[in-house]
Specification:
The complex is a heterodimer of chains A (about 120) and B (about 110). With about 120 residues, chain A is mostly beta strands. Chain A is about 0% helix and about 45% strand. Chain B contains no helices and 9 strands. Chain B has a 5-stranded mixed sheet with strand order 1-9-8-3-4, with no helix packed on it. Chain B has a 4-stranded antiparallel sheet with strand order 2-7-6-5, with no helix packed on it. At the A-B interface, strand 5 and strand 10 of A face strand 3, strand 4 and strand 8 of B.
Amino acid sequence: GAGVSQSPSNKVTEKGKDVELRCDPISGHTALYWYRQSLGQGLEFLIYFQGNSAPDKSGLPSDRFSAERTGGSVSTLTIQRTQQEDSAVYLCASSLNAPQGSNTGELFFGEGSRLTVL
Amino acid sequence: DAKTTQPNSMESNEEEPVHLPCNHSTISGTDYIHWYRQLPSQGPEYVIHGLTSNVNNRMASLAIAEDRKSSTLILHRATLRDAAVYYCILRGSRLTFGEGTQLTVNP
């Protein structure tokens, strides 16, 4: 596609349920990032992928959070046993290069997935 | 991670220039300075980036201090559509976004 695509755009779930959020990056982009943004707050880094591997997953807030990326393309962020504090907009971004790449590595963001945990 | 410091908010009038400052005193030699902005209910969008020299593009200009410990994003003529949160980040680490600067543009 032309840009980063995320789904679902909105998800309402009950506390304790598992949710999966999907990110389809721009074709050919090797680096993929997940961020979380709570209402009125800045972006909180969660994890980044270079290809299918995740060199930095230190931003994941707990072991209820996991992410995978297959085929160097689509990524899924999974939140198990959701809690109300997980409510936020989850943003995905992709770029051509990893952070230590030598050129611009401009990030392209999706529109986000808004998660509401009741 | 190298961190950036920005004012929480700034205000400008339409058609006037806006200078948005960013301090990054712990920047390393390989860190690019990137600016993004986030309009309400949208994901962030790229504005401009630079390493050492000042940069211009169709959206803005980026002025980088000689010691690279600070930079300034310049919007030459603010419009109402420029009202957004502007983030200054250092590209070369985990891409940590700070709280950004909320820019208000008055008609």
